[in-house]
Amino acid sequence: MLSASDFASASWELVVHVDHPAVEEQKDITLRVSGDLHVGGVMLKLVEQINIPQDWSDFALWWEQKHCWLLKTHWTLDKYGVQADAKLLFTPQHKMLRLRLPNVKTVRLRVSFSAVVFKAVGDICKTLNIRRSEELSLLKPSGDYFKKKKKKDKNNKEPVIEDILNLECSPTITGSPVSPGLYSKTMTPVYDPINGTPASSTMTWFSDSPLTEQNCSILAFSQAPQSPEALADMYQPRSLVDKAKLNAGWLDSSRSLMEQGIQEDEQVLLRFKYYTFFDLNPKYDAVRINQLYEQARWAILLEEIDCTEEEMLIFAALQYHISKLSLSAEIQDFTNESEVDEVEAALSNLEVTLEGGKADNTLEDITDIPKLADNLRLFRPKKLILKTFKQYWFVFKDTSIAYFKNKELEQGEPVEKLNLRGCEVVPDVNVAGRKFGIKLLIPVADGMNEVYLRCDHENQYARWMAACILASKGKTMADSSYQPEVLNILSFLRMKNRNSASQVASSPENMDMNPECFVSPRCAKKHKSKQLAARILEAHQNVAQMPLVEAKLRFIQAWQSLPEFGLTYYLVRFKGSKKDDILGVSYNRLIRIDAATGIPITTWRFTNMKQWNVNWEIRQLAIEFDQNVSIAFTCLSADCKVVHEYIGGYIFLSTRSKDQNETLDEDLFHKLTGGQD
Amino acid sequence: MEQLSDEEIDHGAEEDSDKEDQDLDKMFGAWLGELDKLTQSLDSDKPMEPVKRSPLRQETNMANFSYRFSIYNLNEALNQGETVDLDALMADLCSIEQELSSIGSGNSKRQITETKATQKLPASRHTSKHGTFKALSSSSNQISKPSHANYSLDDITAQLEQASLSMDEAAQQSVLGDTKPVVTNQHRRTASAGTVSDAEVRSISNSSRSSITSAASSMDSLDIDKVTRPQELDLTHQGQPITEHAISLRCSSKQAKRHIDFTEEQAELTPHSYLDRETSLLLRNIAGKPSHLLTKEEQAAKLKAEKIRVALEKIKEAQVKKLVIRVHMSDDSSKTMMVDERQTVRQVLDNLMDKSHCGYSLDWSLVETISELQMERIFEDHENLVENLLNWTRDSQNKLIFMERIEKYALFKNPQNYLLGKETAEMADRNKEVLLEECFCGSSVTVPEIEGVLWLKDDGKKSWKKRYFLLRASGIYYVPKGKAKVSRDLVCFLQLDHVNVYYGQDYRNKYKAPTDYCLVLKHPQIQKKSQYIKYLCCDDVRTLHQWVNGIRIAKYGKQLYMNYQEALKRTESAYDWTSLSSSSIKSGSSSSSIPESQSNHSNQSDSGVSDTQPAGHIRSQSIVSSIFSEAWKRGTQLEESNKVTHSF
C-alpha cells in the first residue's frame, strides 16, 4: 500500500467517515494524502476506495472539529488547514428536514444542509410554491415548544408522523433548483384568484413536482379548525420577555444548516420572518396567502399578538367564513351582479313587449317583486315600558317593512313603514332558547329608530334576516344573493345549534365548527358559547359575501392593522442604561419598550437612519440617525447577529421593487445582514 | 293663464296642508301607508282624505326630500331676488337641451320654447319663476304629444298611451277633485310624473308654485334644489316610491314600472333628440336601404336589437338623479348649479373652480355645515355629493360652502404631524414622501397610533368627562376605569363604518365644553340632537386635528391619499392649461404659485401623465433604496474599517 514516493512527498493518513447506508463494514476509510492534494482529489480517491457504483455527486466533506464544509473542491488540504488529526465526514449535502409550516402542518423535505440558510429557504419555498422566499426563514423552536407539543401528543395519543406530508422525492435531491418560478415567466395565473384552487393549465407543472394536487391543497387550503381543547393546550400566555426569548431561535441566514447544528430529520419552523409582504397576488400566491393567513390566525388564537375583543370577533367571523368555504365542495359563483340581473330582467321584459305578447300579464309575472309576509312580534324600546313583544302582520317588500294590526288590514294603511336602506341589522339570537330576534337600527334625522323583531323559527328568521341584510345595502329579495344569504344564515344557526343539541347528526366536516375554536382560549373563557356565537354571527354579516381568497387577504390586512403587528422583540441593554429594555424591530422602525410595563419609550424610524454597524468584539450594535441621534445596545436574549440580520433584512426588503422581476439580489442581502467574516 | 289661476287655488290649499304637516310633525309613522291608500283611492276614484295627514317630516324617502329641496331653494332665490342664479340655471338647462337636440335631428320647436322660457326670466321674479316652470313643462309636453302620433313603436306606444291615459285620468281626477290633501300629494308626485300629461304638468306648476309660497311662509332658506331636466320629468328616476304610487294604477312591480317608464320616454323622445347618433344613423340606414336587400326577419331583428339597446341606455340614463344645489361662497354670495347623482365631490369642486375663477388650489373644499347642531365637515373628494345632500331634512338650514380649507390636505403636506404621534419636527420632502408611501401604499393602511385623554360629553347633559381614548383601525376605544392599557381590555367606543367625523363649533357656549376644540361623530343621516351623536373635546387644536385626520385615515384609508393625488393632478393640469407650458416646465413654474405642497409634488409629476400610483410607488421604492444603500455603504465602510482594526 505504501510506496516510497508516498513517504517522500510527506504524505499522511486521512481518516474519512462515510455516511452511507451501504458502506457498513468499513465506515472509516483511511486515505493516504498529502497536503497539496485538493479536496476534489480526496473525494475522487474516496469514491474509488468505497467502490460502490452510484451517484456521489451530492456528497461532500464535512470537517467536524471546525464545524464546516469543505466545499471548494479546488482548495488544497493545506489551504483548508486539514491535517492528520482532522475528522472528516463524507456525507450528502441534502438531508431530510421536518418543517413545521405556519399552518401547523409538518412536511418532510430534502433540504440542502450545505447551502446558506437564505438559499436553502429559497429552495424550500420553490418546492412548496411560495413566492418571495426572502420574507421567510427558519426558526429553531425553543425547548418549551417541544415540551408542550409532547404533552399534547401524549394526551391525544396521536402519532406525530400522521400529519407529516412527505415530499422525500423532491428534485432538490440532485441539488438543482426546482421549477424556476414558472409563473413569473409565463405570467399565466397558477391559481384561481377567487378560491385558490390550482388552475388547470398548471396541472402539468404539478406532475413534475413533488407537489401533487392533493399536497398542494394541504398547503393552499385552510385546514379544519383545531378543537378548543387542543387550542387551550397550545395556548401559553407570554410576557414580552418570553416573546423575546422565542426570537432567539432564528437561524443565521448566511450560514448553512449543518454549521448551525441542525441534525438530519430535526424539526424546525418555517415562518414568515419579515413582516412586509410584497405583491401578494391571488393568481400566483395561493400557498403563500394561505400560509400567511395561517400564521396570522395562529398568532391571534394563541395571543402572540394582542387585539381587542371587537377585533377578535372580526377575526373569528373571517375564520368561520374561510373554513366554511374551504370545506364546501362547490364554491359559489359570486360573479352575478345585481345590476346585471336588473338589466337582464328589463331586457327580457322588453323583448316580451316587443314581440307583442300579452303585455300586461307577462309584465306582472316577470317583474313581480318577491315579498315576505308573516306574523312577527315587534318591540320598540321606550323608557318606562316593559319589554313586551306585540304581534303584527308584517310585509317586507322592496327595501322596506310595513306592519299592520292584522292580516286583514294589509290593504289599509300600515301602523308604520320602515325603510331599511342604510340601516344596521344586528342578530339577536339564542338558538338554545329558541329566540330568533332581529334588531334594526334605522337612522333617521333625529337619531336612530330602534326596532326589535322576533321570529318563531329558524327558517322564518333566515328569510327575514337575509331580506333585512340585503335591504340595508339597498338590494331587494330579487337580488341573486338572497338565496345564498338565507342558506348562509341557516348554516350558521346550525353551527350554534350543535352545541345545544349535539346528538343531531352533523356531517363530519362540521365537527369542529364551534365558536370557541375561532377565538383565543382566554376570550372563549370570558364568554358563554352562545353569546360568542351571536357576536360572531353579527360580525360575520359583513363578510358573508366574500370569496375565499379575498377573505384570507382581508384577514391578513386586519392583522396588519393591529398596532403591534410586525414587532419582533428582543431583550437588550442600551449603552449607558442600568436596566434591560425590550427592543421592538418592525419593518419601518425600532422601538425601545420598557420591559416591565410594556410602554414604548422611544421610536426610531429606518428612514432617518444614517448608518449602523456591529462591533463584533463586544457584540454591540450601534445605529446612527439623522440629527445626530445615535444609539448602541447589546442584545441579551439572542446573538447580536440575529438582531443585526433582522434590521438589515428589513432594509434589504425595502429595496425590492416590482420592475426587478423575480431575481433577488442575494449578494446585497448578505452584505446587509452579513457577519464578521 | 288658466294655469295660474289654478295655481292660486292650489296655493291656498298647499299652505293649509303644510300647516297640518307642521301640526303633525311629532307624529310618527303612517304616512307611507296613507300614500298607498291614496293610490288605491286614485284607482277607485275615491276622495283622498287620508293623504292630507301624511306628515312630510317622517319621510325617509330620498326622492321626496330632494324634491322638497328644490322648492326651498327656489323660495330662497325668490326671497333674495337672485335672478342671476336662475338665469345661470336656465342657461345650464338650455345648454343641456341644445346638446341633446343637436345630437338628433334637432327639435327646433323645443329650443324655441326653451328660449322663450329664458327670455321670460328677467321679467318679474315671481312670474318668471313660474314661467320657467311652465315653459319647461310645456316644452316637455310638446315633446310627448307629437311623439305619440309620430313614432313607430306601435305596441309600445299603445301601451304607453294606455298607461299615460290612465295616469292622466288619475291626475286629472286628483286635480279636479281639488281637495286640499290631493295637492300635497300631488306636489310630491309631480316631479316624477312630469311629462305624462297636461294635467300632471299643470300640477307641477301648481304644486311647485304653491309649495314655494308655503315654504316661504314656513321657513326661509335651504340650499338644495331639485329640478330635473325637462326631458326627465318622467316617472323613472325620481325615486321609486313616488313612482310606485303613480303607476301602481296599472301594475304593482317596480320593474314593470321602470319598463313602462322607459318605453314612455322612448316613445316621447326618440323622434327628437334622445336617440343617439348611432342609433338614428343605423335606423336611417336600414330605412334607406331598398327593402329587397333586407329580409323582413332581418329588418325586424335589427330593429328589435336596436330598440333593446336604446331602451337599455334609456334605463341607465333615466335613473340618474339630478339636483340643483346652492353653494355658498366664502364672500357671502352664492351660486346655483346642477349636480347629477353620479358626480363626486371632486367633480363638483372642479366645476366650481372653473366657474368662480378662483384659481386652482388643493385647499378648495365643499363644507357641509349643520347649523342646528353647530357642526361642520369637509366633504371628501371621493364622496358622492347628492347622496350626502339627500340626508338633509326638509326644513334644514344646512349649508354647502365652497371655500379654501387648509385642513383638508394638511395631512399630506406635513404628514409627520399626523402620522408620527407627538413629534413636530420639520421633515425633508423626500422623507415625507417616503412616510406617505409607507403609510398609504402598503398592502394595508397604517392607522396612526393616536391616543390620549379626551373629554366625552355625557348623553343629554352639558357635562364632560375625561377618558383615555385610543384610535385603532377597527374603531375608537377607551381604557375602562381601573384597567391597564392592554388591547384586550379596551372598550369599543365606536366603530367607524357608519359615522362621519365633524368639527364642533363653539361648543363652549352651546354645551359648556371645556375647550372649543371639539369633534363630533354621528351617522350622516342624523340631523337633530340625539343620543346617538357622540361629542369629544380635545385640549388643544393640534390634538383635534390629529384625531380628525386619524379618524379619516382609519375610515377612508388609501382612498384619502388617492383623492389627494387626484386633486394634485387636477390643480397641476389646470395650471398647465392656463400657462400652456410643456409638462417639463410645468412643475417648476407652478410650484411658485401653489402652496408648499406643490414643490413636493413636482418631483412626482416629472413622470407626466403616467404619474399614477404604481409609478409613484416604484419611484419612492427607489428613493428608499437609495437612502438605504447610502446608509449601508457608510455602514459597511465603517464595518470594514472596524474589521481592519480588529484583525490587527
UniProtKB/TrEMBL annotation, chain A:
PROSITE patterns cross-referenced by the UniProt entry: PH_DOMAIN
Alphabetical keyword list: Cell adhesion, Cell junction, Cell projection
Record GO cellular component, one term: cytosol
Domain PH: from-to ranges: 377-473
SUPFAM superfamilies per the UniProt record, alphabetical: PH domain-like, Second domain of FERM
Keyword Zinc-finger belongs to the record: no
Pfam family for this entry, one: FERM_M
GO biological process, one term: positive regulation of cell adhesion mediated by integrin
Listed GO MF terms: actin filament binding; integrin binding
Compartments reported by the entry: Cell junction; Cell projection
Family: Belongs to the kindlin family.
Name by which UniProt lists this protein: FERM domain containing kindlin 1
Taxonomic source organism: Prolemur simus
TrEMBL record, chain B:
Entry similarity comment: Belongs to the MRL family.
Residue ranges of coiled coil: none
Compositionally skewed regions (Low complexity) per UniProt: 202-218, 586-602
Lineage summary: Eukaryota, Metazoa, Chordata, Craniata, Vertebrata
Top-level division of the source organism's lineage: Eukaryota
One Gene Ontology term, aspect cellular component: cytoskeleton
Segments forming domain PH: 447-556
Name recorded for this polypeptide: Ras association (RalGDS/AF-6) and pleckstrin homology domains 1
Region described as Disordered: spans on this chain: 1-26, 102-148, 171-224, 586-615
Cited PROSITE patterns: PH_DOMAIN, RA
Record-linked SMART domains: PH, RA
Keyword entries, A-Z: Cell membrane, Cytoplasm, Cytoskeleton, Membrane
Domain Ras-associating: 321-407
Biased composition (Polar residues): 102-118, 135-148, 603-615
